[in-house]
Amino acid sequence: MSFKETIRRFLGSEALLEGREPAGEIPPARDLYKRFLKLAGPSVIESVLIALVGIVDTIMVSSLGDLAIDAVGITQQPRFVILCFIFALSTGVTAVAARRKGQEDREGANRVLRNALLLGLVMILVLTALGRRFAEPFLRFAGAHDSYIDDAVIYFRIICISLIFQGMNIVINAAQKGSGNTRISMTTNLIGNLVNIVFNYLLINGIGPFPRLEIRGAAIATLMGAVAAFSISVIRLLIRKHYLNIYVEGGWKPSLTVLQPVLKVSVSALAEQLVMRVGFFTFNLIVAKLDPLSYAAHIIGTNMMTLSFCFGDGFQVAATSLAGQSLGAKRPDLAYMYCGIGRRVVAVVAFLLSVFFITLRYPLMRLYTDTPEVIEMGSVCLIIMAVITYMQTAQVICSGCLRGAGDTRYTAVISLIAIGIIRPVGGYLLSYTAGLGLYGAWLGILIDQSMRLILSSRRVKQGKWLEIQL
Question: C-alpha 391: how far from its chain's center?
């Protein structure tokens, strides 16, 4: 058999089904790939642009010095702790909105969005108020050093305000993605992040008539970007022709009946989010306690890691949405095939990213810092990340399909094992006990991602997620 024929069979319908019985007529594999890539395109572009904006954001802050990188970086996990309730809610919204789209229930999808917005608003207001009130102890608990704690508190308190708008935007975009409209989410986040970059430039160093606000300016720019993105998302809901809009019948009255399937998914997703946040928080604390230069190299490395994650996340949106819609249309065979398509696509992307990170590791580090120690440590982390890339992107696809089908209880177990236990324990033992420092922590990430891929891909192949009803 020729190499070309081998590839054709690997990508074909029979290979995607992996021996499963079709539930109906199977479209040509080429059509399935086209539909997948058409839906994935805007999500990938959105995710990549968001990652690039985050990279540019950190590079702009790095002009203030390595301690400024630490001050901004230490707020990342506390921010995610606040948003974890919104992330959990959005998982349920995406899954149920996709099912309603597959069932051709437009009113039901709009009811889901409206109820989720009301619930999400209450949650995010309470959480951000607590975040602002206890900012300093929260950040010290996260491992912040005295050398940059004051700047970190200033940055975090402003960021908490931006999380209100970001949280609501996440809920709206979750419903849009579930209903298959990934382009709207791309547009809103693109504009919001462009606003962020522009005001970063103007406010961090004080350009023209704008004052030099340094760390405070970076936080204000983030707030303005979040407000811009949220405003555009709301405007989109005012357009009648869109699948999701405020004019579709259903009203805004809270309904437990509407929220029940959302909460069925979200409660387990929340357990997963909490486990993830505890695991990431603990791991971040372990690295932050090494020394400021190691932590700066770690922040830069994780900043670059978002570029790898964003590809998996972008393709995951398409796999999750199409799998959910297929399940809503009583086609579990197509749901399984879309998951397989996602894994095949990200395998190619992961290879290219690995080459990119290894080849350009030193120039990439020099974008952030001139400190030789930080450049050297960070470049080694990028080599480890090149190995991680495939496992990271592939497990994101598998976990996304499981969550989109409502199998969030199992993904919570995966997170408990891999993120809650393996990553922090492995990171600590390799960093401190084995004396590998920052490199040990990154090897802990490698082990974590490997375990997540093994467990999630095993669950996908078992097929139990295809039988869940929402």
Answer: 15
| pTM score | 0.74
Q: Which two tokens stand for residue 160?
A: 């908490």
CA 257 → CA 175, 244, 253, 263, 457, distances in Å? 17, 19, 11, 10, 33
Residue 420, both tokens: 């809650």
- pLDDT of res. 54: 67
Q: Which residues contact 173 (CB under 8 A, 6 or more apart)?
A: 90, 184, 185, 188, 189, 233
Q: Report the alpha-carbon distance of residue 152 to residue 371 in Å, rounded.
A: 21
What CA–CA distances, in Å, run from 227 to 113, 128, 222, 230? Answer: 19, 15, 9, 5
- CA dihedral sign of residues 171, 175, 181, 182: positive
Residue-wise pLDDT for 3-53, tens only, equals: 677 777 777 888 888 888 888 888 888 899 998 988 888 878 777 777 776
**Distance, first Cα to last Cα, the chain:** 44
Exposure on the CB side of residue 415, measured as CA atoms within 13 A = 24
The single-letter code of the amino acid at 245 is N
Q: Which residue has the higher pLDDT, 6 or 107?
A: 107
Query: Largest Cα–Cα distance of the chain, in whole Å?
Result: 68
Give the total number of structural domains in the chain: 1
Residues in CB range of 239: below 8 A, 6 or more apart:
245
Q: Quick one: DSSP state of residue 210? A: S
Query: Cα separations (Å) of 287 from 5, 237, 441, 445?
Result: 48, 43, 7, 12
Buried b (16+ CB within 10 A) or exposed e, 20-36: eeebeebeebeebbebb
CA–CA dist 357, 379 (Å, integer)? 9
CA atoms of 171 and 185, how far apart (whole Å): 11
Q: Which two tokens stand for residue 153?
A: 């508190």
Residue range 356-395, pLDDT digits in tens: 999 999 999 998 888 899 999 999 999 999 999 999 999 9
Other C-beta atoms within 10 Å of 133: how many?
Answer: 12
Q: Are 203 and 217 in contact (CB under 8 A)?
A: yes
Mind listing the pLDDT tens digit for each residue in 283-311?
Answer: 988 998 888 889 889 988 888 888 788 88
Placement of tokens 């290894």 in the chain: 358
- Alpha-carbon distance 60 to 215, whole Å? 10
- Two structure tokens written together for 254: 């809270």
Residue owning tokens 């809650």: 420
How far apart (Å, rounded) are the C-alpha atoms in residues 70 and 58? 10
Q: Which helix (H) or strand (E) holds 433?
A: none
Host domain of residue 166: 3-467
Token pair recorded at residue 378: 């960070």
